[in-house]
Amino acid sequence: MKCLFGSLSILAFIVFSLSCSSRVEERDENTFSVARELSWYTINLHGKSHEITAFCEDLIDAIADIEGIKLEKVLISSGRSFQTLNKGEYNSILTISSKDDVIEDQYFFSDLFLNLGPVLVVRDDSKYRFLDDFHERLLGVWEGTTYAQKLEMNPSTVTRLYYDVSKAIDELIAGKIDGVALDLLAARRYAGGAYRERVKIVMPPLEKRGIRIVTGKNENDMKLIMHVNEGLKKLIGNGTYQRLLKKWKLDKEGVGVSEGIQK
Fold first, then answer.
1. Which fold has domain 118-202?
2. pLDDT exceeds 80 at position 105
3. Among 111, 124, 157, 159, which residue has the least CB neighbours within 10 Å?
4. How far is residue 86 from each of residues 41, 91, 147, measured CA to CA in Å?
5. What CATH number belongs to 28-115+209-247?
6. What are the residue ranges spanned by the domains of the chain?
7. How many CA within 13 A on the CB side of residue 126?
8. DSSP strands (E only) in 29-152
């Protein structure tokens, strides 16, 4: 009987401890949890996963310091970000998203930490600058880009799907297509590498997609987003943001945001 009572007591303590650790309501009003999945599986980061993760970790710490708040970083299994957010297990999630990915009415979005959206790559002498310029023109779309499905559904754009980026760029240079839609990191690899001075990237991105913090929609969530956005603005203004980009060798990748265009 004593053994049974002891086992039940231990079990009750474990359940209580787990309950307390998972409830965001019991945290101090200036303490917020930020959950991040183990991997950035929704997008190909072209060998920059470690650097991007480390940059975001440092940036979160810097935001917390400059805003005088505590941001507790938590790792969760892949594919559970919005599930844990909806259940109220954590105050926020750090995720790769655009505001079109989910119902905006249900969530608050911070400004972008890093810009990873799709861009257009055109020949170096091309005058095309906007997606509308490709009306009835042939646009190559790399199947790996996050924007591929949206472009294929656009009735004003004629698209050709490519599984090999190099082939798409070669056919662009040969004049067989008029542009290629790629995620920014992939575009930088080609426009800044072997195809330098033969192709160029058209900015801004087609979609404001990248790494940002997302919360639910209550008063405390709004407070967190305001802290994050204000802290990010301060860090951009005082040069810390750029120093972190350089620290993690992301300053030449074109993924950094500038004040006024990061939303």
1. D-Maltodextrin-Binding Protein; domain 2 (3.40.190)
2. no
3. 124
4. 20, 10, 26
5. 3.40.190.10
6. 28-115+209-247, 118-202
7. 25
8. 31-37, 70-76, 92-97, 108-109, 114-115, 118-123, 138-142
CB 56 within 8 A of CB 211: yes
Q: Which amino acid is at 90?
A: Y
DSSP string, 119-182: EEEEETT----SGGGGBTSEEEEETTSTTHHHHHT-TTBEEEEES-HHHHHHHHHTTSSSEEEE
**DSSP annotation of 115:** E
Q: Looking at residue 251, what DSSP letter applies? A: T
- Return the pLDDT at 27: 58
Residue 103: both structure tokens together: 């119902």
Per DSSP, the residues of 5-26 read HHHHHHHHHHHHHHHHHH-GGG
CA atoms within 13 A on the CB side of 173: 14
Instruction: Judge contact between 248 and 107, C-beta under 8 A.
Output: no
Residues 6+ apart with CB under 8 A from 188: 201, 253, 254
Identify residue 140 by its one-letter amino acid code. Answer: G
Tokens of 205: 């991105």
Q: What is the rounded distance in angstroms from the CA atom of residue 48 to the CA atom of residue 54?
A: 10
Residue 215 sits at φ, ψ, to 5 deg, of -130, 175
Domains 28-115+209-247 and 118-202 are alike in CATH topology: yes
H or E segment and range at residue 262: none
Statement: residue 21 has pLDDT above 60: no
Tokens matching residue 254: 């074109």
Report in angstroms the alpha-carbon separations of 236 from 113, 202, 229, 242, 256. 10, 24, 11, 7, 10
pTM, full prediction: 0.81
CA distance 109 to 132: 27
